[in-house]
User: Fold these one by one.
Assistant:
Number 1:
Amino acid sequence: MDSALAWTALLVLAYFGLLTWSLKHRGQTLQGPWFFFLRAFFPNWKFFHAVGRAPRLYVRWQGEGGPWSDWQPVYPRLRRHLSHLLDNSAVNLALTQQNLVDHLAQDINDLPEGQSIGERVSFQLVSRLAHEAVMGGAWGDQAMLAQPAAQASAWQFELRMERPELPGQSADSVLMLRSAQMPVMPKAP
């Protein structure tokens, strides 16, 4: 047997072994820096547990000495195209970035008393995502924000838990996290 094939088989077996172990211990929270790297292999199944509020990322910015903009959602609603059957990279990127927001909400809920969320990798990644949106980021050919920031000098993001409006119910939103006001960093070359 080829050594690359043997390593692949061993890694797949280890993956399913870890998956089986985590399913048996799903009532407990798995913690540790090593587990954060393994989360990429496990989809966030919280969506299927109950219908309720979902985490949404919002950003706002301020021009040099001007007023703050209104809060804008950074939430992917990309149009589907037939070409996505062959190349779906923009939609996959948008869904991956929304998954970061989901993981930040989970990390906030699991945060031990007295610890700062700012030290968590999920917070840092979502901060970069929000900064990218303010700086004019896009998913493929679609801008991340409905109204792009014009000459922003400072920005801020919020994480809200939102429930969409359903028949017989009104929409609601609960603030989960508001970041500090941060200066805009120039784009990297």
Note: The first helix runs from residue 3 to 24.
Number 2:
Amino acid sequence: MGHAMTISATMVKELRDRTGAGMMDCKTALSETAGDVEAAIDWLRKKGLSKAAKKADRVAAEGLIGVGIAGTSGALVEVNSETDFVARNAQFQEMVSAIAAAATTADGDYAKLLAVPFPGKKISVEEHVKEMVATIGENMSVRRTAAIAVKQGVVASYMHSQVAPGLGKIGVLVALESSGKNTEELNALGRMIAMHVAASNPIALDIGGVPAAIVEREKAILADKNQGKKPEVLEKIFQSSLKTFAKDNCLIEQAFIHDPSKSVTQVLKEAEGKVGGPIKLTGFVKYTLGEGIEKKEEDFAAEVAKVVGEAKKS
């Protein structure tokens, strides 16, 4: 199949968008990997041609991310609608705000969130959403929820492309554990770090939190680039590469977007005086509207139909 596979312009564009590699390199990578975009990304990286493996931006969902904060805990929800028109509707926005407030009692448990009473109503969140579907006349659904809490300190939030307070397209929560009494200062710092998360897309808090599969993938790419080197040399290369990887992908090691001369860890350390106590960044959550909802099956079916159609013509 390898070479009979037609590499469509769309595939080349997607690979280019995700790697920043040149047009011809992308085309070669796709031919070499029989049109498998993920494999092509690895192929380009092994050749040192890829800038980054960005996740595809193509998403198939509208709606809003909502944030709710209650005391020292915070929650995020994603509520989807079919059209952006409904996402701009005041009734829909009020509903998402209320669901986000209810989510602060659900501890990130999706089933629990659907079952909690909708604020100010006798019915559950799930029932209320069903009623709203009938009222607004468009399908809507609560897709997911996450929560984060501290024993003492603050959970701060940031909402990007905000359409109303606490509602937008990208929502971030950051947990700062601290005994410092100046919570106003702590909150301001938390919001700055939440903005940093929205912009810098960390994979994890620290290197220990990076999924094993990602670390293995990095190892495989390095081993491929350094074939024939002794195991102990390879290990050294891998350790130094892991440090670089952490600086790029782990929140506490990243260069702070508001002051790139410092790492997030340094910024926290320097703020301890103002806050009046040690500060520990214990976690973060980031939700981007529609991430991961890619209508792959439908696109695949359409592609197959197109190929079948072309085969009939010839």
Note: Residues 1-57 form a domain with the Helicase, Ruva Protein; domain 3 fold (CATH 1.10.8.10).
Number 3:
Amino acid sequence: MAEIVPTILTADLNAYRRLYESFNTFTKRVQVDICDGVFTPTLTIDESNLWWSQGWAACDLHMMVMNPSRHLPAILKLKPHLCIFHAETNENLLPIFQTLKANNIQAGVAILKQTFPKKIEPYLKAADHCLIFSGKLGQMGGKADMLQIEKVPIIKSINPNLEIGWDGGANLENVRELAHSDIDVINVGSAIATAVNQAETYKALTVEAEKQGVLI
């Protein structure tokens, strides 16, 4: 069964706090997007300014950054549940994965639309999580490229134990198809963050993802 994970993408620390506190009332897992303004066209809050209280939802970090090692010291202090770096960065991610795991942080690799899974096979074998990125870097509210689902069986053939995530354009219209495509985690940004009732929207997405039978 796919897990719905609300996503936070903001340059405003007050907005981050409001969203996290809201999300924490109805979910046990949240993803925070960090953009460096280099790998992405936009800049968000810096991971060194993040915080969360004990008892809050588990936090995943999606690091859309060009130089992962520069961000590693702050991440190790935060100790997120999972930290995801992009395969398309300027650095070799394998030593970074080793460091994360040595500090009890799960290691994730994200792949952009143009990246074919076979080309990053060493990363997929070493990681705990692979994020299929279907959106626009540093932006919410994009349209999902459902053709990216075709990467799922390729990724599974390389590492059947990987948790597979989806990021980009997930909503009530497509979440059922995503959930029935061997995807484990569906990150949802604007569909939840901009909803009038975030908790009810999260519940509706979860119910839709759990539906069985033929897609109509």
Note: The chain has eight helices and eight strands.
